[in-house]
Amino acid sequence: MEQMRNDWNLLKDKLEIDIIKKYASYMNILTISIIVFCYISIFLYIIFQRLPFILDFILPVNGSRPYQLLMITEYFVDHDKYIQFILLHELLVGYIGLTAVGSTGTTFIIFMSHVCALLEITSYRIENAFERNILAMPNPKKQYLLHRRIAHAVVMHQRAAEFNEFLNSAFLVLFSLLIAVGVSSVTLNLFLFCRLILLNDIGRASIIGLLTFAYFIYMFIGNYWGQAVINNGIDLFKVTYNGSWYAAPLSNQKLLLFIMQRGREHLSISCFSVFVASLDGFATLSSTVISYFMVMYSTRQ
What we know:
By secondary structure, the protein is mainly α. It is 79% helix and 1% strand. The chain is built from ten helices and two strands. It has helices at residues 2-10, 14-49, 51-58, 83-127, 132-135, 139-170, 172-198, 202-242, 250-263, 279-300, and strands spanning 270-271, 275-276. The protein has a two-stranded antiparallel sheet with strand order 1-2. The longest helix has 45 residues, at 83-127. The model has no long low-confidence stretch (mean pLDDT 78).
């Protein structure tokens, strides 16, 4: 967070500030949406769980309606006697668990969006480095202004690359655990969903189906922003390569080599260089989940 704050303080141009504010606005909307979705999901689950009590109050019948916990858990107590405490426990676990998962995911996505913002700002600086009025200036002044602008772009690209490396190193273990737990959880949920459908347990199957769908959405959002980092790196390389770098003095062209050489290896969020967060990575995860599910389902038959 301290490095992000320092990057913000380096920005002086209004358009550069607008670029980073645009990504901050995206993250604000995404964070609120995830929090609202998590809390509404838990609220609806509790309402659905307490539906027999609600119907007994609104439309009473002779005798109490049968009650069944939707989540398959074992508390080693009498469910009928301690049902209120069990529901309270599920509510607290759901809110705390979803808050932890949602906050972890949104924090990581915020970091990825910051890398995207820095890369877009670098592209903007390179695009505006070779303005016609600067190229028309006398050589000493032109060389000074070009050197200054290109140097600012190189510094911003370097900060983006360093922040990207920090993400890959600091979150490597967490990223690996998320992939392993996510693939395992989705596979088991798919297997359980099919079993509940065969048993005609529509209530529990609906909960498991929605949970599986939320897993896929969670994976897609993370991989989407990983793809955004890659795309911004590709755009930066294209802007640098297709710009008017040939009109700059030789000493200024050498500065651009730092970006062009580094731009050939696109920035990305990766896990041991085996899995790269991208849309292709999401497709790979999805196919892996389906493969594991088919193997598990065929062995159980």
